[in-house]
Specification:
- By secondary structure, the protein is mostly helical.
- It is built from 5 helices and 2 strands.
- The chain is elongated, with a radius of gyration of 23 Å.
């Protein structure tokens, strides 16, 4: 398959396919004598899997590491569970940070409603 066909089938741009190849998500494609990349059908599924992992919260580096473990034949649910646990921990930390930020914004809003807005300069006395 040519790069445009892979991109279309996987629902990504050609640039994404190139980027994934550079970053190691996809193995380097074979090249025709003309220089065009040639991918097999497995590239489409690999891109879909990478996108699904990213949607779960994996970083691109984590996607590459998880795929490498899979490629090595060592991956099992038990051996890879820690990756998802790390993602959940990161999401929980981010949610806690957002909750703190929200509380601070609500406090500022309450102050503004009470006429004590910290964002409006007070006249010099």
């Amino acid at each position: 398959m040519k790069i445009g066909q892979v991109a279309g089938a996987a629902g990504v741009s050609v640039d994404t396919v190139r980027f994934y190849e550079r970053r190691g998500v996809l193995p380097a494609a074979e090249r025709r004598p003309s220089g065009y990349r040639v991918f097999d059908a497995a590239a489409v599924e690999r891109i879909r899997l990478a996108k699904a992992l990213q949607e779960l919260g994996f970083t691109l580096d984590e996607v590459v590491e998880a795929l490498a473990a899979h490629d090595a034949g060592d991956a099992t649910c038990d051996s890879e569970r820690w990756r998802l646990e790390a993602v959940v921990d990161r999401i929980d930390a981010r949610m806690a940070e957002l909750a703190r930020t929200r509380r601070a914004a609500l406090e500022s809003l309450d102050e503004c409603r009470a006429g004590r807005c910290r964002f409006v300069p007070r006249p010099a006395q």
